[in-house]
Amino acid sequence: RMASDSPESLMRLCTDYCLRNLEGTLCYLLDNQTLRLHPDIFLPSEICDKLVNEYVELVKTDSIFEPHESFFTLFSDPRSTRLARIHLREQIVQDQDLEAIRKQDLVELYLTNCEKLTAKSLQTLVSFSHTLISLSLFGCCNIFYEEENPGGCEDDCLVNPTRQVLVKDFTFEGFSRLRFLNLGRLIDGVNVESLLRPLAALAALDLSGIQLSDLGFLTQWKDTLVSLVLYNMDLSEEHIQVITQLHKLRHLDISRDHLSSYYKFKLTRRVLSLFVEHLGNLSSLDISGHTMLENCTIPSMEEKMGQTSIEPAKSSIAPFRGLKRPLQFLGLFETSLCRLAHIPAYKVSGDKQEEQVLNAIEAYTEHRPEITSRAINLLFDIARIERCSQLLRALQLLITALRCHKDDKNIQVTGSAALFYLTNSEYRTEQSVRLRRQVIQVVLNGMEAYQEVTVQRNCCLTLCNFSIPEELEFQYRRVNELLLSILNQSRQDESIQRIAVHLCNALVCQVDNDHKEAVGKMGFVMTMLKLIQKKLADKTCDQVMEFSWSALWNITDETPDNCEMFLNYSGMKLFLECLKEFPEKQELHRNMLGLLGNVAEVRELRPQLMTAQFIGVFSNLLESKADGIEVSYNACGVLSHIMFDGPEAWGICEPHREEVVKRMWAAIQSWDINSRRNINYRSFEPILRLLPQGISPVSQHWATWALYNLVSVYPDKYCPLLIKEGGIPLLKDMIKMASARQETKEMARKVIEHCSNFKEENMDTSR
Prior knowledge:
Residues 402-756 form the Protein zer-1 homolog-like C-terminal domain. This is Protein zer-1 homolog. Keywords: Acetylation, Leucine-rich repeat, Repeat, Ubl conjugation pathway. The protein is α/β, with parallel strands linked by helices and 767 residues long. It has a domain at 610-766: Alpha Horseshoe (Leucine-rich Repeat Variant), CATH 1.25.10. The protein is built from 31 helices and 14 strands. The protein has a ten-stranded parallel sheet. A two-stranded antiparallel ribbon has the order 1-2. Helix 3 links the parallel strand 3 (85-89) and strand 4 (108-112). Helix 12 runs parallel beside helix 14, helix 23 runs parallel beside helix 25 and helix 26 (657-670) runs parallel beside helix 28. The longest helix has 20 residues, at 742-761. It is elongated and about 105 Å long. The protein starts with 9 loop residues before the first helix and ends in a 6-residue tail after the last helix.
């Protein structure tokens, strides 16, 4: 089975269902607004953790999912719901949400970029102090601020709104079990040393983006600290001295974003040698973004021969020859060292080739979007210029990055561009349904979040790599709404407009009528007519114009409501103007006449076509040779339905009904019965209804000719359809009718014969 094609776990499906239907499953609504858990429910932490974490994910990545203000109150009582490990992100979580779960015995709490949290939440953290082992406050830039009212009286409040004041006296006193702590991007002014001093045995510490001149206090954990992250900290010789004393370190990250600001510190051969010499347990080191002050490399004969080795003894980076064993991970992204042949590590992040780039995206996505977007840009180049050899991994990493950083423009631009190349037909066979659906979801997220031209174009182009409408059907409403909103923007990019109209057309082709009706109600007909109007004003007949008429032809097929909308929004006026402005445009004429054929099939709307001007136009188009027989055929189809209403419905003096009938006979007789067709019938019902009647023999003849042509030229498709829809008995009955013309009866016999031959040839004789 294809990788990643395994179905979602039952736990995941149930969690998703419950979250989307809280009222119908776990909860009821109190006073029509507050969610309450049913009293007989008890849920263990394995389930509650998943509910909370999945809820956060849904709010972040699914635009249709509605967040509940009282969601976190469901977990306020540990007697009915238990929480242990939860990951909360961004604007989704506020002070009152953490406050609601303060009685829980949390073991792991990750708060990532939760900018709405204030110092009130610091106090709530104290409630978890006796159980918390792992805590992340990464990017919670306001959690050390509290609101202060300087005046203290009500009048003053109006003059001076609340002011943000830094909390200076909070420490991790009492957090006796805390071992893993991430304070990344902590705001300036907090005294990190006094904050951390009470912690007895820290094992992992992340101080990303914090500038500290003195790291000496870290030595109090020299016997316990196994992981230290100092990303974007400007280092000094003193810092290095402290780091080398932390002899238990297994993971050290001193990497930096070389674009973010000027760093005085330069890495030397000596510093790397000190790490190797003093940190004997080191298995992961990240020095990405650093400039080497001197040459650390050893020229090697084998480099030219293309053989690579991860053995420390053969290392091209001189200081690493002293390693006892290869590193598990070595971060060399945006350094010259990643281009060397012998790098003593199993996994390397860098910018030299695909494997290194994918390792970089994997390592930096969650907390370093600024680095990730540059790594994705490199992946984009690989996907565009070479062939991507780790397609599944690349796609999964891209999906994760785009989900995680829905609001990061750089990642959305580069990620959507890379997705376009990684989903094209060359890679199609390697992708599962589930994976392709995930791609569609992130593409639609990007379109929703960004009205920006590049993202919109990339996303629209990526959607063109999918089978439409089949692969987009699970998001049918959403994708149509997004495309229509793009097409309704006042200022439009030509290329996006063209792709969006093409997608709209494909989406309404070959889908159920209820889909078409739903899209019609979204304003589809009006949007297409507006585009046509604009193009007419510019006297331009381009792909947008042709696709718009084609989309209207598709959306009105057997959908009377949409046909009526077309007439109500002055569609006939635009039809006449287009015909006059672009007399030579065959494709355009075919699309317009196809659409009017659909309108003419609706009995209640036919009186609106009964004007001297319209009938005159349709009659003249009978002689058209545009697009083979298509324009003439469709014009005759429109008139056949009008004739079917009988002489009493002919409410005009000119042209005479008999004269038009004569022209219809002449047109039908001029068509080649073996014509290949530019048309696609899903049902013969509108044609078959013209057979059992004597009021308009010419309509009967047109319908019979249509059936004869289609079953002759495309028997495999249309013989079964005609048989299934009961066409044969109708034809047999017509042959017995006195009013039917002899040539029509002859043709009907041939249709019956074709279908019976087809049936015999395709009978299954195997036993």
